[in-house]
Design goal:
CATH topology: TIM Barrel
CATH class: Alpha Beta
Keywords: Glycosidase, Hydrolase
CATH architecture: Alpha-Beta Barrel
Order of helices and strands: EEHHEHHEHHEHHEEHEEEHEHEEEHE
Helix content: 25-40%
Protein name: Beta-glucosidase
Structural class: alpha/beta
Largest sheet: 8 strands, parallel, barrel
Number of domains: 1
InterPro entries: GH, GH_1_N_CS, Glyco_hydro_1, Glyco_hydro_1_AS
Radius of gyration: 20 Å
Strand content: 15-25%
Family: Belongs to the glycosyl hydrolase 1 family.
Distance between the termini: 6 Å
Pfam family, one: Glyco_hydro_1
Strand order of the largest sheet: 2-3-4-5-6-8-11-12
């Protein structure tokens, strides 16, 4: 049995636009992307959903606030929506959850998007204004603050790959947006600490484990080393953080061939429905690299698209085993959040993702054809055993 320390956090994560339903006033809802629509109707069913999480033995939950609900227009505050999120957080506290709250998870209010979004430095000021409002209204209910979810992913898919709003394709604009988002995080960090000096504030960063396709190749090793350094040092080390939020899903193998950098597929990989290779060892390697920053680490997302629920139990066990391996070696990892609590709207990227609801990450199945019925998957019971015993039986 692999025992975890007392106080280790076990939870699951969700994001407002992906689960709440009824959000129409942000850049995603009014773009050419397929809409989330009613989603899981978590907005009205959050008590049911969090009771399920409690039943599964979790002691923490990660949610996000929808900026466009709270501030639908510049300097216009929707107190009814603030009250809603207050009720959500109070209910989580009633159930005994440690609360992790993300302030901006990919979506932007329309009025921000129309003013240039993250490409405008003014957005950093508007974000700080919004953060201050959240701090004064809800801060007493928030244990861990996540300012921005995956700024590098948001910036690259929106401004370099033209895959997400605002559908731009400019590397220079990507760099500008990324820098603005990191600056916004730092400004929000100071704002939150102004209200709550002892607050735990950070952001989440999606990090793949990058390795050389041929470890005997100097150039392959150099490429992988550079990729790891740029994703870690250039983000966490240059920003203010009380903890590190890690989202880990997959790893990459790099090869230099004919003067071009290429990703190389593994031999006989186990692939998720999304086509990602399952590679738990990569989580340990990333944790090992983050340890040099000497900050508490929380795995804020780790999950698998698996509609048939044949991979999820093994996926969870494999990754939790690597988390324990890291803990045993003195790496300060303090919590693990599975993505996601529910099947939900997943940000479409692949050609076969036509509605956003194709990929099933949830511990809890949501029947989108029959009244959004919640069904606890068998794999969720495997995770529940880990949560309830604070250990992994091997």
């Amino acid at each position: 049995m692999l025992k975890f320390p007392d106080g280790f956090l076990w939870g699951a994560a969700t994001a407002s636009y992906q689960v709440e339903g009824g959000i129409t006033n942000n850049d995603w809802a009014q773009s050419k992307m397929p809409p989330a629509g009613l989603a899981c109707d978590h907005y009205h069913r959050y008590e049911e959903d969090f009771r399920i999480a409690k039943k599964l033995g979790m002691n923490a939950q990660r949610i996000s606030l929808e900026w466009s609900r709270i501030e639908p227009e510049r300097d216009v505050w929707n107190e009814e929506e603030i009250d809603h999120y207050r009720r959500v957080l109070e209910f989580q506290k009633k159930l005994g959850f440690t609360t992790f709250v993300t302030l901006q998870h990919l979506t932007l209010p329309n009025w921000i998007a129309k003013s240039g979004g993250w490409s405008s430095k003014e957005t950093t000021k508007e974000f700080a204004h919004y953060v201050s409002k959240v701090a004064t209204s809800l801060g007493h209910l928030i244990d861990f603050w996540i300012t921005i979810n995956e700024p590098s992913i948001h910036a690259s898919y929106g401004y370099n790959f033209a895959a997400w709003p605002p559908f731009k394709r400019s590397f220079l604009k990507f760099l500008k947006v990324y820098r603005n988002m990191l600056n916004a995080h730092d400004r929000a960090y100071e704002m939150i600490h102004g209200h709550y000096p002892a607050a735990m504030v950070g952001f989440t960063h999606s990090i793949a484990f990058n390795e050389a396709a041929n470890r005997r190749s100097f150039f392959d090793r150099l490429i992988a080393r550079f990729a790891n350094l740029t994703t870690i040092e250039e983000t966490y080390a240059l920003t203010k953080n009380d903890f590190l939020g890690l989202n880990y899903y997959f790893h990459n193998k790099y090869q230099l061939k004919h003067l071009q950098v290429k990703k190389v597929a593994a031999k006989n990989p186990v692939l998720t429905d999304k086509g990602w290779e399952i590679y738990p060892q990569g989580l340990y390697e990333v944790l090992k690299k983050l340890a040099v920053l000497k900050k508490p680490i929380y795995i804020t997302e780790n999950g698998v698209a698996d509609a048939k629920d044949v991979l999820r139990a093994g996926f969870i066990r494999g990754h939790v085993k690597e988390v324990h391996r890291a803990f045993e070696r003195g790496i300060p990892v303090k919590g693990y959040f599975y993505w996601s609590l529910l099947d939900n709207y997943e940000w479409p990227v692949l050609k076969n993702e036509k509605t956003g609801f194709e990929m099933k990450f949830g511990l809890v199945k949501v029947d989108f054809e029959k009244g959004l019925k919640r069904i606890i998957r068998p794999s969720a019971k495997v995770y529940a055993e880990i949560c309830k015993t604070n250990s992994l039986i091997i």
